[in-house]
Amino acid sequence: MKNKIILEPAIEDFIGVQMAIFKKAKRVELCSNLKDGGLLPEIELAKILVNKGITPVVMLRNNSTFEINNEELIELQQEIIKYRKVGVKEYIFGWIKNGKIDKESCEAIIKKLKSDEKFVFHRAIDEIGNYNINIPILIEMGFSRVLTSGGNNSAIENLESLKTIVDNYNKKIKIVVGGKITQETKKIIEQETGAFEFHGSHIMW
After folding, report:
1. DSSP readout, 70-113?
2. Which among 131, 123, 55 is positioned nearest to 86, based on CA atoms?
3. Across the strands, what pairs with 147?
4. How does residue 175 score in pLDDT terms, banded at 50, 70 and 90?
5. Which of 19, 59, 112, 204: CA 20 to 30 A from 13?
6. Cut 0.90: pTM above it
7. Is 97 exposed, middle or buried (0-12, 13-18, 19+ CB in 10 A)?
8. Are 170 and 138 in contact (CB under 8 A)?
């Protein structure tokens, strides 16, 4: 049986929220400052999406790098409480340190989440590669999905790598393909890799 294709647009403002509603999106990544890779979004936008039956995957990120300090972690832990109050149940985050997954920082956020709240590792993983080492770590930590382009370039340039990742891990952790995905490149990537979850700011419009 063929898996159902899931398209996850990345949105950062009220216009994006309106488009998601108009296009009948089921799930969106909600952030601010897409040009910086996505930062914490406005809570009111999350509230609108939840009320419309759309799942917002909230970006937990308060600087434009893939590193974080204790003060920033405390801020994010406090933000989770605010997002929870408007019905958010999914979050995307992830940090690296010295070329490895920063497990300590990730676990500081995970321990603040409830059992029915999902968490996704974002494209920080493409900064460090070594997918056969790092994806099993994410599985062990309980991440439900990982967002990846399969390398440092756009997803369409990493078809072989993506196919290997999907073949090896998609039954254990959902592989969401991102990285300059368009409606056109999505079709090629789907056909060549077997991926069925796609992410991008131009994935639905």
Report:
1. HHHHHHHHHHHHHHHHTT--EEEE--EETTEE-HHHHHHHHTTS
2. 55
3. 176
4. very high
5. 112
6. yes
7. middle
8. no
